[in-house]
Amino acid sequence: MKPKEDQNYYKLLEVSHHAEWGEIQTAYELAKKTYKEEGIASYSLFSPGEKEAVLGKIEEAYRVLSDPKKKQKYDHALALSSPGLFVARSPSPAPPAEEILHEDLCEESIKSTREKRGISLEEISETTRINIDYLAAIEKGRFEFLPAEVYVRSYLRQVAKIIRCNDTIVEGFMKQYHASLQQKLQGEGVPIQPKSIW
Amino acid sequence: MILNGQGHRDLFESIEIPKKEIWAVGGGKGGTGKSLISANIGVVLSKMGKRVLLVDADFGCANLHTFLGVEPEMTLSDFVQGKVANLKDVLTKINPPNLFLLSGARDILEITDPRHIQRVGLIQQIRELEFEYIILDLGAGTSSSNLDFFLSADIGILSVLPEPTSIENAYRFIKSAFYRHFKKWAQEPLAKKLITDAMHEKNARGIQTPYDLVNYIASLDSNAGKTMRDAVLSFSPKIVVNQVRSRDDVTLGFSIRSSCAKYFGIRVDYVGYIEYDEHVITAIKKRTPLVTEHPRATATRCIERAISNLLRKEDLKIESIFKTVRM
Question: Could you tell me which residues are beta bridge partners of residue B54?
Answer without folding.
Answer: B101, B135
